[in-house]
Write a structure and sequence with these properties.
Shape: globular
CATH class: Mainly Alpha
Distance between the termini: 23 Å
Number of helices: 11
Number of domains: 1
Strand content: under 5%
CATH topology: Fic-like fold
CATH superfamily: Fido-like domain
Low-confidence stretches: none
Mean pLDDT: 97
Order of helices and strands: HHHHHHHHHHH
Length: about 250
């Protein structure tokens, strides 16, 4: 049995139910955008709750929350729309697509660094891994794009999505917003391959960080790939609930 057999069977089951009713698609999409935005920002320390995130996305300001936290929610939704457009229009991944995506994430938060590769060296707090020197970022990103467009295409989509995420944050090309960008790029791969987007819940943050650090320092990617595979398997559940299937 292939290690991806379960997730492939889930995808086949969902594909057999397509086309999905428009009302179901709309409802699932609104739910996904909200959960994805909440959890991805919460992993990075945003204090908006799920309900507060929903209110902010509806255009209402929450008292006692910073402008940055409001912008992070609104920007993240725009970034999701951006990668969905890339999927719809079959846009190949390039350096300019990545910087454009990152620009959306930091817009009105840190405009000087939005969409700009870092010019300084960084330390990831609490991690053993040290990202490459700032002078190497451009060449590392060129290598990353070349790998993505060639060797990575031979991998199973779930493995490719996990590796895209892990290798991107290993480079840490931006001063801020790398985690959010990595999770968006991971889901770009899943969506392109016809899988649902996978939302990493904030309550697995410790396992998430530890498995990433293991990948970066010991070149053992298995725990991280297995975590992503588990999250992808769970991402089918809202579909079964919405469609009333077991």
């Amino acid at each position: 049995m292939s290690e991806y057999e379960t997730v492939d069977q889930l995808k086949e089951k969902l594909d057999s139910l397509r086309p999905l009713p428009p009302g179901v698609i709309k409802n699932l999409h609104e739910d996904l955008v909200l959960r994805w935005t909440y959890h991805s920002n919460a992993i990075e320390g945003n204090t908006l709750t799920l309900k507060e995130t929903r209110v902010v996305l509806e255009g209402i300001t929450i008292g006692g929350k910073t402008m940055r936290e409001h912008c992070e929610a609104i920007n993240h939704r725009q970034a999701i729309y951006y990668i969905e457009d890339m999927v719809k229009n079959n846009v190949p991944l390039s350096g300019s697509q990545i910087t454009s995506l990152h620009h959306l994430i930091l817009k009105n938060i840190d405009d000087a660094n939005a969409g700009v590769y870092r010019k300084t060296n960084v330390i990831i707090f609490g991690a053993e891994h040290t990202p490459p020197d700032a002078l190497q970022v451009q060449s590392e990103m060129d290598r990353f794009i070349h790998w993505h467009n060639n060797a990575a295409q031979k991998l199973h989509p779930v493995e490719r999505a996990a590796m895209v995420h892990a290798d991107f944050v290993k480079i840490h090309p931006f001063t801020d917003g790398n985690g959010r960008t990595a999770r968006l790029l991971m889901n770009l791969e899943l969506l392109k391959a016809g899988f649902p987007a996978a939302v990493l819940p904030v309550d697995v943050r410790l396992e998430y960080y530890e498995s990433l650090d293991m990948a970066h320092t010991q070149q053992d990617y298995k725990p991280f790939i297995n975590l992503i595979k588990k999250i992808v398997e769970q991402s089918f559940e809202p579909y079964w609930f919405a469609l009333g299937v077991k």
